[in-house]
Design the sequence.
């Protein structure tokens, strides 16, 4: 059972999650977070120390949730891409928080249990077995896979047309496209070096 203090802290985190995803660190207002959380600003500062620390706490919580929901099996990287796509669709605020952190130069906030997805050593082992194209650096490969899975969050459609297709069919089509692209990226090369 939660104590009053734990419940207040959880409300502050939930309110901050919405505020930071919408306005970023610079545009977020502690007054709005406290009001939405039904807490005093003094209580917010007592729990988190300040706006930057609260931003870091929300970012860490988002990264932990993402890490917990994604598979870590290097032998099923297409499954990882599909799961990451699903997570990005279900939790768009998590991606917005990462964008704000990059744009505003927010301090690094490592995920409590490491970065989401398979470990580089596990990818290297799959490469050594000939399952994954060995020409890719494991860290570069993970960056590419993250980009494939989250590409539609960065789509310019909204800018050009004022809307984006968001039907179940469109989401399914995009998910399959990301997985298919990952499969092509992962397939061991047939004696060819990467064109880089």
Sequence:
């Amino acid at each position: 059972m939660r104590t009053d203090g734990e419940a207040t802290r959880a409300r502050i985190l939930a309110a901050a999650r919405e505020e930071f995803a919408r306005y970023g660190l610079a545009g977020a207002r502690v007054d709005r977070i406290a009001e939405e959380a039904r807490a005093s600003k003094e209580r917010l500062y007592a729990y988190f120390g300040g706006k930057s620390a609260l931003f870091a706490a929300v970012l860490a919580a988002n990264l932990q949730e993402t890490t917990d929901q994604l598979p870590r099996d290097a032998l099923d990287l297409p499954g990882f891409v599909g799961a990451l796509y699903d997570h990005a669709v279900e939790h768009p605020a998590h991606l917005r928080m990462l964008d704000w952190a990059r744009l505003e130069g927010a301090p690094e906030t490592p995920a409590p249990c490491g970065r989401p997805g398979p470990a580089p050593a596990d990818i290297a082992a799959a490469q050594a077995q000939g399952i994954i194209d060995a020409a890719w650096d494991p860290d570069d490969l993970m960056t590419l896979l993250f980009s494939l899975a989250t590409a539609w969050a960065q789509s310019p459609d909204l800018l050009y047309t004022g809307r984006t297709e968001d039907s179940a069919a469109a989401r399914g089509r995009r998910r399959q496209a990301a997985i298919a692209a990952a499969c092509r990226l992962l397939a061991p090369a047939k004696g060819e070096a990467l064109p880089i």
About this structure: The mean pLDDT is 88. The longest helix spans residues 4-27.
